[in-house]
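Replying to the earlier thread about multi-chain prediction with a worked example.

Input:
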Amino acid sequence: MILAKKRLIPTLLLKDGRLVKTVRYDTFKDVGDPVRAARVYDAQGADELIFLDISASREGRSLLYNIITRVAEECFMPLTVGGGIRTVVDIKKTLRAGADRVCINTQTLLTPGIINQAAEAFGASTLVVSIDAKKNSQGAYGITSYSGKKWIGRNPVDWAEEVENRGAGEIFLSFVNRDGTMGKGYDNNLLRQITDAVSIPVIASGGVGRLDHFVSGILEGGASAVAAASIFHFTDQSPIKVHAYMADAGIEIRTE
Amino acid sequence: MIAIVDYGMSNMHSVLKAVEAVSYDRVAITVSPGQLDDATHIILPGVGSFAQGIRNLRDRRIDEALYRQVIKKGKPFMGICLGMHLLADNGDEHGPNSGLQWIKGRVIPLEARGESQIPHIGWNRLSLCKNSPLIDDSLSRKDFYFVHKYHFHCEDVDAVLTKTFHGAEFVSAISKGNIFATQFHPEKSQDNGLKILKNFLEFNHP
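Result:
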């Protein structure tokens, strides 16, 4: 069957206008200028870029809008932007700045109705809901908010179903325990449970340390798109190389 | 002047920058219907729902101005995504509502078939149904960026320019005289998308 191609998505984490990288959602390093990084990913044929802002201040937010506008001026590719979005007005501002889609997390857990409202106002395809899933010390999965800091405990599969029913167009699923570890790859067990439970596409994120992790996220986990940050920041892997590797492994992906 | 129509629905900024990247002509984001008088080419972008889109066009009387400029005067027109849907007779998104009724058809939801996930989000190819100045054979074999939940079920078979498969086949581009439209986002499809915008801007109605 012919379908849309699978997507490879570099994630760019921003704090006060700089590109940073976290490990398990904590301890972050400055890894450079976000506009320059976006330009490189664009030239290397990345399928989409996701910007997640972790600035706490209002100054940080306006720096974010400025960066998105500058990226949108020269990178003619899909841009998804999230972090700190609380209201429909925030969504409007983010789209006005140049984002094509927005990604919401914490607010969907505080007031789930924001998903319905946003889908109604901007269309389902504009709305990505981010789910930060964590495994606790007993090995049980639960969702978290506030960048992985607050344990909500609700089952991620149940929550994913609710997110779909409320009108989200896509799920960005992160594995908090694996963020920045460049370790074992995605949690394909949980990923598969969620991709089986919903019919909207799912982006997997967190834990990629080797190229075969991208492949297993799609073949074993059922993801429509695979996201990563560290492997691009800290190794010589580029979207070009990863695309070629994935195509060799039999995945339908862009190769030019 | 190249006019990009602002009707409160879309990310005009991206379309503006993409047009500026391929043309030396003046480009303007237009808010009042009268500004379309000076346009040589008109682009109707759009992200959002059919219901809200058609309401905004009518409330601002842009529908009448578009009719004068595109249908009466024959100015080259390009609709993108929602801007393509609005050309239909009717749309079911938060509807039903009537559209501009320039191209026969109805905007209906994409159906999930087999492994196809809806919305259709990502890069996909085109299969060319006829010749057109907008998309040639070599471009139709490239990938373009789609993000949509509804599609234009086109009853005017001669207007269908390309089709795309995502579980099932749907119309991904339309051309009829001076009217062009794409379901995908050329302004978001890197170099191949820019080529399509350039082809449109180089088209002059005889």
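The longest helix of chain B spans residues 190-201.

Feel free to reuse this layout for your own posts.
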